[in-house]
Every structure is written in structure tokens, then in C-alpha cells.
Amino acid sequence: MTADIRIVEVGPRDGLQAEARILPASVRAELVDRLVAAGLVSIEVGSFVSPRHVPQMADTAAVLAGARRPGGGRFIALVPNLQGLEAALAAGADEVAVFASASEAFSSRNINCSVAESLERFRPVFERLDGTLPVRGYVSCAFGCPYEGAVPMSAVTRLSAQLAEMGCYEVSVADTIGIATPHQARAVAAAVAAEIGAGRVALHFHDTRGQALANIYAGLDAGITSFDASVAGLGGCPFAAGATGNVATEDVVYMLHGMSLSTGIDLAALIAAGEFVSQHLGRRTGSRVARAQAAQAAA
Fold it and tell me: Which distant-in-sequence residues (6+ apart) come within 8 Å of 50 by Cβ?
């Protein structure tokens, strides 16, 4: 394991969208600035979805306008359809992301359409961009669904291939409800990698059952070098009851650096960014590494 690891920071979007407290655009922009200063270069800044459904993501355009872009990096915005794409383009997003579920039940309850219909909603997005902007894809519920239970691996590989064929340069395979274990994580990662190539696969784990770091290690063993993480372990999933936050970026970076793997991230600055947003949310950081560092400093 000597390859450099790419961390996609999803806290400002996937993390904050599930937090009860709604942060103003100025605080969200400062969080992004702090993440940039810590060395993150791929940051999911927000989404252009209906503020009625996800009020935490209102004013994403203001966040994009107020945050300082990383040198050579990209700010990513999640878009559900062509209307969302137009808003993202007007706001100056460097990259967009689209999402679909490997579970028919989750797709129906989350976005009120079938998996096939959700893909058709994305087709105009790819046609409008015509390769001018990178597109990242998400496959949610790849390891299990809160409504269906087990999700067939064939559904995950098929959907991943469809997103790649549509034009996604990378497909993030997500454990939306934090149910995966390392054996399953490695098997799914290897299967998707065999379908679209390991270089186009990312993994996205929630730490609901405390398995996220072990799952990332299993993903590394399968040849995956791109992982999503959320500063301070922010988030959950507003459409999956009981799902806790994404794996904390601080904890992932600590593990990777302990394995002599390069991330380009300053852990101390990252911990400070996590403390900043946690204070604004009025809660304790979800990062075990940050908590340990704070306890050591106070001793």
C-alpha cells in the first residue's frame, strides 16, 4: 500500500444536510476555507436541491461565492436534475455530482421514482455539460437498504456501470446506513472495480456500527484509493432513520498516515476545522482522534 490516497471531503454537504441546526452561508464558507487550508482539494460544498426538502443546503450559491478555492482543487455541488445543474453552473461549481440508489425501495421513498427513472433525470445533465465539467456519481444503499434489507451485488455493479457509461469519471459506492462489514466491503469494492476499473471507484462509509475504518482498510486491500469522509463525523442521512454520521475525516487521515500513506492533509489543521464547525453546531465532534487529542492537551 504505497499509493497516494484521495480524500473527498463531504462534510459541508452530506454532513451538514443531516444536522438539525442550519448554519448560515458565512459559517459554511468559513468551514470550507478551513478545510482548504488543511489541504483538502476535493470538497463537496453543497447541493442545489429544493430547500423545502433539505433546508440545510439553502444558500449554497452564497457558500460557493464566499469560499476560497484550493489551488488545483475543485468544489463539488450535488445536483438532482437539469434545473439543479443550471443553478450550480451559475454559482461557479467546478464539478457536479449525481446520485442514484441501488435499492428500488430507497429510490422510491427518497426521490419518488424508480432507479431507471432517476438515471433518465440525469441524462440531460450529461448532455448539457457535454464533457465540459467533471461529473461524479453516487450509488447509495450499496451495502444494504433500510426498507429492502440486503441489496444484490449485481444491482450495485449494474448501476455503477451505468453511471460510468453515462460519463461519471468516478463512482462513489456508498454504505448509506452504515451496515457493511470488512468482508462485504472488500467484496463489493472488488466487484465494482472489476466492472469499471479500480481507478474509477470511491468508497463512502457511514460509521453507524463502528465499522467504517475497517471497511476503508478492506477497500484499500481491494485496490481502491479514493474515499469520502466528513470532518468531525458530521451527518447521517435525512432519508434513512438511524444512520449516523459519515466516517470522520480526521480518523481516516490518522489511520492512513499511520500506514505511511500520503493524503496531503495537515491533521492538526483538519482537527481545528472540525472543532470550528462542531462549536457552531453546538455539539461535540464525532472524531475519536480529535477527542483524544483534546483530552491529551487538557491533561
Answer: none
Give the CA angle between residues 121, 123, 125 to the nearest 5°: 90
Strand partners, 228: 8, 204
Catalytic pick among 141, 145, 168, 237: 237
Residue 231's contacts (CB-CB under 8 Å, 6 or more residues apart) are: 9, 11, 15, 31, 35, 248, 249, 250, 270, 273, 274, 277, 287
Average pLDDT along the chain = 93
pLDDT in tens, 120-164: 989 999 999 999 999 999 999 999 998 989 999 999 999 999 999
Q: What phi, psi does 97 have (nearest 5°)?
A: -130, 145
Catalytic residue flag (residue 237)? yes
Give residue limits of the domains in the chain: 6-298
d(CA 287, CA 280): 16
Architecture of domain 6-298: Alpha-Beta Barrel (3.20)
The neighbouring-strand residues paired with 174 are 204
